[in-house]
């Protein structure tokens, strides 16, 4: 190839930059998960703010066919705190900063409310993006200029993906479970990970893991009498989805004192209590590694859980989206499928849905909406129904499907892109581990705050023992104490976290969830600001 | 033996009730046959790229650059990408907070929503508020979200055209609501009659159903008719009188194959009518990147625009959107590019226009070829495809064929379509999947097979149909109803 001697100077440059520079943000805009455009948008905040502005709209509202008085009550009931009130206030503050800089004791909002790594400067994996770009413009695969811009193994991988797509048409709706060739790749990846075979026909590619969770809830919940066992604290997709689909959430409490341990006897206790109150418990949700709690289950623990589900006839819903985020050497991720198969349990023993996503791990590709569920132990008729549900939406986005296959089969030793891939991956994961440690230590130093280690995932979930005076002040402000703390934290520091009540907690305890995702060089400043704020807060509200 | 946690009996009844024929029995059978080596022509779904339509070059270049922004720094980038694609990629990347890999605002990137609002304003001549435009993973997701907001239970009814695109019936069933049908009149070019609407609503109310919304699909799917301005005015007036929110599925607005009735949006007509109706009637309009001349089905990009929906209700819709975090960002960029295409003077403009015109003109020709082809067949009557992507011929099945279908345990049009599939490899969707009047049978096919393949496909169909009618026709003639 005439142009091959250029050999992607840019790639060598990238490699060097990775080591030499502190991680620069390629698109270091202000954080903008939400950005109100016009001042009239303040009316859209009416629901979340405790002002009375909302009542002004209500007067002529009730004559319309669709109003809050007659919409689906399940929609009214469901909540999702990750993008709730505190975040809405943060957006407003961000607008303030733009319009009138210097009006606040901070000059930027730092969004620590959501596991959105690339919005805080984490860079994507180069190889993955090369392949995705090539799949968008497959006509260049044959061009002689292409190797000057793309690595040869990216070109090769793009070719094999394009060939797996009927008609090489990346813009066509695919099979409703996702492109067969990509499911083959994913199945092989699962097998390599677990040491047990996976069937591509058990895989449903979805727009992120969340739609797959919704599908399962829709399938399982017939009425309020159907219950799903969920960890408390939990990622509020579960509570929201259960509410939307008209079921009941049956809580089981993780034990903060033992590093958020999951006890089977607690599961049993809650199951029995639910049954007594007439609830038919259909499934058990386990998030491993945990969100917001960050614990990584031990294999023994997982075995007990699998046996419990088998004995009690529960579907096991295994949320494993953080499987690549493990930060402690004494723990390892084991998939529930592997654990079940290691026990000798097959399709007749355990009904299992395992969820994976491209949003987390070291790839952090949240905006792509890629993910899948692997379903095993379901009868043929039920699988038909699941297929039917998937088909109404036709298929998930193709780019996300491709990315899911790349995540489950990344570059191998010897591949041209392997070294760069490995460096990028290890850089991100080791940095996450350091940030988890730094923030955990910082939180533990705060008065009245205890924080369990983040063994995995992307969050810290410290507990604050709020003084009675603070709790009283919260009541006076007509808001939950942890929300009160988080609002104050935001106004003082610009740091956005989510109050623990958004995830559930033992009544009378207060927490907040903070991500470990801000860039490493920003962490010391964040720690200082929070430490300073906390001291002032405690000074103000200490008895 | 421990209880099986999940069996067919114990799953949600609504799931069982829900049907989606577009990827139902015929499609599954076609896939089976394809695996066995038979050549299948899939005309069951509006999926242009699957039938050889090429993606437009410019948008793909822009999105590829957004996927791999490090290319922008590469001195060789100009070898593969024109300068305006490079500029556009930078433009869209600057709208994101971290590139394509970050969750955007749950409503979609504000910058893209602004471009959509500007597009709507140019199209209709009335202002559009980006705050009331939500991007979604395909228009289907938007439809599902809105229906979920409206439907609380069986007591909530949605007026849906028959025949309809079965996303509506499937979703209403999944949500446990009630579908209130209104029949389009085949002999009047699939026309919509307000008296028919009124009758349907009254019947539903008599049964205790609260009819909350009305769906129009314009241009129609599967029927292809384009609503006239007068018709749209009648519909809006009707919604005003009967207190219904209008759901305007306008995903085929770029696919118009006649000049008598160009596309006119429900929003424009609503605003033209003026107050009080323009301030009272609630309207939600849907659009997509999957159809038109773009055909980017696999991207899953769409939006809905809300008109006259109260802030509190918008908040609830926002809340539900936020649970899914955000729509996929690459598709949002496709949407931006669709509403904001290359302009005269841009480097890529000529190629863009050439590609787009080529597709639209060919679709127009294929709509004609197919309609005429069907009309030349025995016992087949077909309205012209004025818009969208489908042909929906009526097949007058002889009584003996209907009897044979019954014997085979199949609905008559399913029976016909299966035989068609087995004989010719043409995979269609039986009319029963869309709804039709009792005793009247149709099939839906797309007009998407490549133009050069069309004559052979129509010949193949004609041959099969002749043989079928020969086999089942009673030579004394037959009566239809």
Automatic annotation (TrEMBL), chain A:
Pathway: Photosynthesis; C4 acid pathway
Origin superkingdom: Eukaryota
InterPro entries linked to this entry: ALAT1/2-like, Aminotransferase_I/II_large, PyrdxlP-dep_Trfase, PyrdxlP-dep_Trfase_major, PyrdxlP-dep_Trfase_small
Molecular function terms, GO-annotated: L-alanine:2-oxoglutarate aminotransferase activity
The protein's required cofactors: pyridoxal 5'-phosphate
Keyword annotations from UniProtKB, A to Z: Aminotransferase, Pyridoxal phosphate, Transferase
Ranges for domain Aminotransferase class I/classII large: 167-530
SUPFAM superfamilies assigned to the protein according to its UniProt record, in alphabetical order: PLP-dependent transferases
EC supergroup of this enzyme: transferase
Database matches in Pfam families: Aminotran_1_2
Record's subunit section: Homodimer.
Family: Belongs to the class-I pyridoxal-phosphate-dependent aminotransferase family. Alanine aminotransferase subfamily.
Protein name: Alanine--glyoxylate aminotransferase 2, mitochondrial
Species per Swiss-Prot/TrEMBL record: Stylosanthes scabra
Automatic annotation (TrEMBL), chain B:
Pathway recorded for this protein: Photosynthesis; C4 acid pathway
InterPro entries in UniProt: ALAT1/2-like (IPR045088), Aminotransferase_I/II_large (IPR004839), PyrdxlP-dep_Trfase (IPR015424), PyrdxlP-dep_Trfase_major (IPR015421), PyrdxlP-dep_Trfase_small (IPR015422)
Any coiled-coil regions, as ranges: none
Name of the featured protein: Glutamate--glyoxylate aminotransferase 2, variant 2
Entry superkingdom: Eukaryota
Alphabetized UniProt keyword annotations: Aminotransferase, Pyridoxal phosphate, Transferase
SUPFAM superfamilies: PLP-dependent transferases
Gene that this polypeptide is encoded by: GGAT2_1
Keyword Nucleotidyltransferase among UniProt keywords: no
Cofactor(s) listed in the protein's UniProt record: pyridoxal 5'-phosphate
Keyword hit for Transferase: yes
Family of this protein: Belongs to the class-I pyridoxal-phosphate-dependent aminotransferase family. Alanine aminotransferase subfamily.
Organism this protein belongs to: Stylosanthes scabra
């Amino acid at each position: 190839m005439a142009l091959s001697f250029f050999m992607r100077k840019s790639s060598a440059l990238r490699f060097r930059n990775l080591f030499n520079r502190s991680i620069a943000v390629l698109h270091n805009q202000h954080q903008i998960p939400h950005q109100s455009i016009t001042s009239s948008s303040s009316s859209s905040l009416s629901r979340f703010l405790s002002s009375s502005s909302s009542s002004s709209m209500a007067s002529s509202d009730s004559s319309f066919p669709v109003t809050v008085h007659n919409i689906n009550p399940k929609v009214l009931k469901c909540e999702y705190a990750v993008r709730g009130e505190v975040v809405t206030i943060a957006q407003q503050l961000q607008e303030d900063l733009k319009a009138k800089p210097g009006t606040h004791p901070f000059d930027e909002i730092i969004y620590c409310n959501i596991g959105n790594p690339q919005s805080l400067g984490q860079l994507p994996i180069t190889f993955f993006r090369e392949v995705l770009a090539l799949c968008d413009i497959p006509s260049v695969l044959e061009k002689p200029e292409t190797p000057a811009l793309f690595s040869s193994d990216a070109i090769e991988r793009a070719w094999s993906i394009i060939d797996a797509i009927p008609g090489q048409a990346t813009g066509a709706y695919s099979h409703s479970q996702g492109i067969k060739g990509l499911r083959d790749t994913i199945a092989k990846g699962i097998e390599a990970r677990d040491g047990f075979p996976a069937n591509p026909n058990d895989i449903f590619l979805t727009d992120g893991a969340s739609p797959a969770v919704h599908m399962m809830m829709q399938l399982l919940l017939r009425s309020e009498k159907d219950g799903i066992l969920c960890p408390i604290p939990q990622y509020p997709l579960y509570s929201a989805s259960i509410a939307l689909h008209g079921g009941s959430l049956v809580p089981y409490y993780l034990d903060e004192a033992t590093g958020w341990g999951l006890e089977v006897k607690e599961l049993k206790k809650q199951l029995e209590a639910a049954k007594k109150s007439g609830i038919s418990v259909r499934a058990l949700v386990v998030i491993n590694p945990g969100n917001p709690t960050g614990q990584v289950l031990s294999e023994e623990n997982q075995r007990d859980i699998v046996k419990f589900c088998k004995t009690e006839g529960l579907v096991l819903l295994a949320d494993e989206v953080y499987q690549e985020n493990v930060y402690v050497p004494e723990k390892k991720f084991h998939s529930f499928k592997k654990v079940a198969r290691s026990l000798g349990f097959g399709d007749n023993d355990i009904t299992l849905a395992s969820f994976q996503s491209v949003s987390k791990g070291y790839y952090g590709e949240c905006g792509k909406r890629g993910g899948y569920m692997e379903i095993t132990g379901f009868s043929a008729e039920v699988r038909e129904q699941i297929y039917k549900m998937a088909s109404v939406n036709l298929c998930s986005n193709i780019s996300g499907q491709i990315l899911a296959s790349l995540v489950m089969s990344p570059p191998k030793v010897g591949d041209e892109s392997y070294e760069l891939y490995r460096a990028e991956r290890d850089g991100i994961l080791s940095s996450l581990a350091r940030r988890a440690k730094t923030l955990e230590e910082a939180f533990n130093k705060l008065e009245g705050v205890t924080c369990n280690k983040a063994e995995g995932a992307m969050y810290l979930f410290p507990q604050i023992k709020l003084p009675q005076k603070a709790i009283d002040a919260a009541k006076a402000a007509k808001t939950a104490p942890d929300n009160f703390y988080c609002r104050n934290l935001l106004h003082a520091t610009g740091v956005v976290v989510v109050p623990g009540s958004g995830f559930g907690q033992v009544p009378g305890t207060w927490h907040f969830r903070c991500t470990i995702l801000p860039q490493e060089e920003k962490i010391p400043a964040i720690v200082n600001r929070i430490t300073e704020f906390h001291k002032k807060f405690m000074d103000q509200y200490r008895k | 033996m421990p209880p099986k946690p999940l069996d067919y009996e114990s799953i949600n009844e609504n799931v069982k009730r829900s049907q989606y024929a577009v990827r139902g029995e015929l499609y599954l059978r076609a896939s089976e046959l394809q695996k066995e080596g038979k050549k299948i022509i899939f005309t069951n779904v509006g999926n242009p790229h699957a039938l050889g339509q090429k993606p437009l070059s410019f948008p793909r270049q822009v999105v590829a650059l957004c996927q791999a922004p490090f290319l922008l720094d590469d001195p060789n980038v100009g070898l593969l990408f024109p300068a305006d694609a490079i500029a556009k990629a930078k433009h869209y990347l600057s709208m994101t907070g971290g590139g394509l890999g970050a969750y955007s605002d749950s409503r979609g990137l504000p910058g893209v929503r602004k471009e959509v609002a500007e597009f709507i304003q140019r199209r209709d001549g009335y202002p559009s508020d980006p705050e009331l435009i939500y991007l979604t993973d395909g228009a289907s997701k938007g439809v599902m979200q809105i229906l979920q907001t409206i439907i609380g239970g069986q007591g909530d009814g949605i007026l849906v055209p028959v025949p309809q695109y079965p996303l509506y019936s499937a979703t209403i069933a999944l949500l446990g609501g009630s579908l209130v049908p209104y029949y389009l009149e085949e002999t009047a070019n699939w026309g919509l009659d307000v008296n028919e609407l009124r009758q349907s609503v009254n019947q539903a109310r008599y049964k205790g159903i609260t009819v909350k919304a009305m769906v129009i699909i314009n241009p129609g799917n599967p029927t292809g008719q384009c609503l006239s301005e007068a018709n749209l005015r009648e519909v809006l007036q009707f919604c005003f009188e009967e207190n219904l929110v209008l759901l305007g599925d306008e995903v085929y607005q770029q696919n118009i194959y006649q000049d008598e009735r160009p596309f006119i949006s429900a929003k424009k007509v609503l605003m033209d009518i003026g107050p009080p109706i323009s301030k009272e009637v609630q309207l939600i309009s849907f659009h997509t990147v999957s159809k038109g001349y773009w055909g980017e089905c696999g991207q899953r990009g769409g939006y809905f625009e809300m008109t006259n929906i109260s802030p509190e209700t918008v908040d609830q819709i926002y809340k539900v959107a936020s649970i899914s975090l955000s729509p996929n960002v690459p598709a949002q960029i496709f949407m931006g590019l669709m509403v904001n295409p290359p302009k005269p003077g841009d480097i890529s403009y000529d190629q863009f226009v050439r590609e787009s015109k080529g597709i639209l003109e060919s679709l127009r020709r294929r709509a004609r070829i197919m309609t005429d082809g069907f009309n030349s067949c025995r016992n087949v009557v077909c309205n012209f495809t004025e818009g969208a992507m489908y042909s929906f011929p009526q097949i007058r099945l002889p009584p003996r064929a209907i009897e044979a279908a019954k014997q085979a345990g199949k609905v008559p049009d399913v029976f016909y379509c299966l035989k068609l599939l087995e004989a010719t490899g043409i995979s269609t969707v039986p009319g029963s999947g869309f709804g039709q009047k009792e005793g009247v049978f149709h099939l839906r096919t797309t007009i998407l097979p490549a133009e050069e393949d069309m004559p052979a496909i129509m010949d193949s169909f004609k041959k099969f149909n002749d043989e079928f009618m020969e086999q089942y026709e009673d030579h004394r003639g037959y009566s239809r109803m």
